[in-house]
Amino acid sequence: MKEADVLDFVRISIGSVWALEVLSLVRREPRRVWQYGELVRELRSSPSAIAGASELLERAGLVARIDDHSCRYQPTTAALDEVGELVQKIYAAKPATVIGAIFESSDEKLRTFAAAFRFKK
Question: Domain extents for the chain?
């Protein structure tokens, strides 16, 4: 898989820097069930940011929610496991590139929203 494909996945499916950080942390210990409170402490985040990140990762097929306050790394397919590994490797080597991909996604959503309010001539 090419780096551009991985960045597209990040742009479309990861969607936040908090989700990227949660993914990096839970992927290090894939058998561990992480309580949200542990993730909050480890990442110096907030409960709402961790819950939102977990939800994004669950929708992406990378994390399984165990209950309302815990999750673990559990990709739904081997291909997603490979993507998770590649995201982590690229993020470790080029953090600005991966974070930039996330912000590009936000910029595009904002442009689409703003375009809805443009007056037609």
Answer: 3-115
Which residue stretches of 44-93 are H helix?
Answer: 47-59, 78-93
Convert the pLDDT of each residue in 3-62 to its tens digit.
999 999 999 999 899 999 999 999 999 999 999 999 999 999 999 999 999 999 999 999
Helix (H, G, I), strand (E, B) or coil at 73: strand
Please give the single-letter amino acid code of residue 16: S
Q: Are 48 and 36 in contact (CB under 8 A)?
A: no
3-115 is a CATH 1.10.10.10 domain: yes
Residue 50: C-alpha distances to residues 10, 25, 27, 31, 74 (Å): 17, 12, 15, 19, 17
φ/ψ bin of 60: left (φ > 0), alpha (ψ from -120 to 50), beta (otherwise): alpha
